């Protein structure tokens, strides 16, 4: 995610929306690797205003075409849109863009779509294969409340998981970039608990990237089993930029030892502290929904207090199965439940 700022202009016909600084200052070494920002923003102009929006995937980062193999088809561009009221937003969008929706869905109206997404889906309603000029787009609509909850607590690790990978931030009226820093630090924390004492930079990013796929039932029969490595190898520089601050934070606290010249290098080797006190610290700082599942596995109580978190961490460290298995099971259970709702 890039730093956002106010820029004059309309997105969804609302001049107060924010767009990223990339529109004014795109790094030269990325100019040929990414879809121009204006091309990504353009489809939003025909929709009702949104509070938060980002684009992601192989249709956004040209360098991610590595993950598509030999396919020559133009990839669909994927968006997530955060809105204050999905029901109201869909009602307005049905008036503006009825062709974005399946004809039978239009009969039920915006409130029904929102209710179905919340009760049966993962809180997100998707419109897919929407024509836009020479491409097709797919966009998911979620309430800002649910988006924030997922980023902070990993309730479903869906939007939170998307934001743990490189994305193009398009609209930010909720301080989402600042909010996501905690999500990135949590992703790094979880990854360290799953990794051995020594590992490469590629191992680190692959573990982080794989968090939101752990337990995903679709990976068993539909998804590319090498998807995670391909994502990392195709966006290594962006992963480095995304996690540099979080890594430096842990390095300054001697939790993680990074290479002397910390620059993008998938073969660079890292070493993490193996102290019991460090394990306690990492475990006790995991997001709320992970801590709740760890508490259930260890027979401890979760109440969001520091003391309760430390008691859970101690129980996990002292468990016969070990912290790696318990954290894996906790994260997998979140993702598995969410993935069933997306089938």
UniProtKB/TrEMBL annotation:
Membrane is among the record's keywords: yes
Membrane topology term: Peripheral membrane protein
InterPro entries: Tam41
One annotated GO molecular function: phosphatidate cytidylyltransferase activity
Keyword Heme included in the entry's annotation: no
Pathway the protein takes part in: Phospholipid metabolism; CDP-diacylglycerol biosynthesis; CDP-diacylglycerol from sn-glycerol 3-phosphate: step 3/3; Lipid metabolism
Pfam families per the UniProt record, alphabetical: Tam41_Mmp37
Enzyme Commission identifier(s): 2.7.7.41
CC per GO annotation: mitochondrial inner membrane
Names of the cofactor(s): Mg(2+)
Top-rank taxon: Eukaryota
GO BP, one annotated term: CDP-diacylglycerol biosynthetic process
Subcellular locations according to the entry: Mitochondrion inner membrane
The entry's keywords: Lipid biosynthesis, Lipid metabolism, Magnesium, Membrane, Mitochondrion, Mitochondrion inner membrane, Nucleotidyltransferase, Phospholipid biosynthesis, Phospholipid metabolism, Transferase
Family: Belongs to the TAM41 family.
Protein name: Phosphatidate cytidylyltransferase, mitochondrial
């Amino acid at each position: 995610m890039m730093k956002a700022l106010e820029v004059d202009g309309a997105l969804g016909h609302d001049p107060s929306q924010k767009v990223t600084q990339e529109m004014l200052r795109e790094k030269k070494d990325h100019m040929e690797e990414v879809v121009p920002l204006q091309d990504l923003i353009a489809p939003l102009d025909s929709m009702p205003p949104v509070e938060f929006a980002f684009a992601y995937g192989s249709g956004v980062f040209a360098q991610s075409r590595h993950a598509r193999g030999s396919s020559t088809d133009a990839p669909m561009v994927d968006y997530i849109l955060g809105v204050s009221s999905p029901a109201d937003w869909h009602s307005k969008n049905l008036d503006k863009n009825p062709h974005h929706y399946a004809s039978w869905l239009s009969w039920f109206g915006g409130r029904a779509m929102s209710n179905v997404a919340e009760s049966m889906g993962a809180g997100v309603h998707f419109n897919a294969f929407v024509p836009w000029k020479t491409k097709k787009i797919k966009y998911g609509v979620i309430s800002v409340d649910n988006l924030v909850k997922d980023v902070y607590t990993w309730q479903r690790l869906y939007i939170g998981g998307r934001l743990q990978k490189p994305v193009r931030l398009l609209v930010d009226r909720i301080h989402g970039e600042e909010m996501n820093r905690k999500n990135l630090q949590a992703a790094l924390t979880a990854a360290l608990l799953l990794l051995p004492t020594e590992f490469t930079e590629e191992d680190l990013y692959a573990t982080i990237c794989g968090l939101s796929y752990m337990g995903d039932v679709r990976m068993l029969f539909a998804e590319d089993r090498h998807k995670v490595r391909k994502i990392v190898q195709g966006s290594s520089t962006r992963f480095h930029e995304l996690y540099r601050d979080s890594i430096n934070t842990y390095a300054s606290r001697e939790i993680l030892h990074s290479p002397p010249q910390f620059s993008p290098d998938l073969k660079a080797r890292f070493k993490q502290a193996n102290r019991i006190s460090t394990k306690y610290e990492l475990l006790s700082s995991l997001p709320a929904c992970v801590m709740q599942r760890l508490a259930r596995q260890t027979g401890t109580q979760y109440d969001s207090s520091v003391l309760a978190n430390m008691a859970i961490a101690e129980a996990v460290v002292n468990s016969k199965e070990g912290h790696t298995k318990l954290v894996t099971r906790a994260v997998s259970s979140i993702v598995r439940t969410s993935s069933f709702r997306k089938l």
